[in-house]
Design a protein that fits this description.
By secondary structure, the chain is an alpha/beta fold. The protein has ten helices and six strands. The mean pLDDT is about 95.
Length: about 220
């Protein structure tokens, strides 16, 4: 394998723990809306919210409407919960120390750094700002702006073109086995799966890590 000159990352679930952020939001919302949630207990409210959210892959526009219908809540509460989510989510996004350590080590070693993420541009860029990562990366590609989403190889190719690195000299780290890992491999990058407990990797010969710092020995 040629020497790695660039490391690209997925955002949600990879650079920060999205499920932890959603759990914290659910706790906050239950505290604020407790009186209007009536008979619903916090464990049920939070559990169904995370189930319906599907680790960020659910349709954002009707998530709280679906939750309200399932739990027998007033539809006006669904709109208020959605507004609350948009106002509070960013505050609950946290970057692990291991992630910061990894990014600093890669930068010190001269690696190019990038993000390729699916989603609305304003929302994804706001997350990077909230995480303190707005100025960390050499390139950030968001699917809405690019008009193409992972796992389409074109979005990976654009990132590589913009940082001037060949595919076989670039690593991509992500948590989704198909969208991130298979997508990166099909585009010719070195794929790395950031293991999560809710998905299963079926590809062979893929590096699997539990912490981002585990990629450092391979990039040197």
């Amino acid at each position: 394998m040629p020497a790695i000159r660039a490391v690209l990352f997925d955002l949600d679930g990879t650079l920060y723990d999205r499920d932890a952020a959603m759990s914290a939001v659910a706790h906050d919302q239950f505290a604020v809306f407790r009186d209007r949630l009536q008979h619903v207990e916090e464990t049920r409210f939070a559990g169904r919210l995370l189930d319906l959210d599907d680790h960020g892959y659910a349709r954002r526009t009707d998530l709280y409407q679906r939750l309200a219908i399932e739990l027998g809540l007033d539809e006006t509460l669904a709109a208020d919960l959605e507004s609350s989510f948009r106002n509070s989510y960013m505050r609950r996004c946290e970057v692990a120390d291991d992630t910061w350590t990894t990014l600093r080590a890669l930068r010190s070693a001269g690696q190019k750094l990038g993000v390729i993420t699916n989603g609305p541009t304003n929302w994804q860029m706001a997350k990077l700002e909230a995480l303190g990562m707005a100025d960390v990366f050499d390139v950030v590609l968001v699917s809405e702006t690019e008009g193409v989403s992972k796992p389409d190889p074109r979005i990976f190719a654009r990132a590589l073109e913009r940082i001037g690195v060949a595919a076989d000299m670039a690593m991509f780290v992500g948590d989704h086995p198909e969208i991130d890992v298979a997508g990166a491999r099909d585009a010719g990058l070195v794929p790395v799966w950031k293991r999560v407990p809710y998905w299963t990797l079926t590809l062979d010969d893929v590096l699997v890590v539990d912490r981002l710092s585990e990629i450092l020995p391979i990039t040197r």
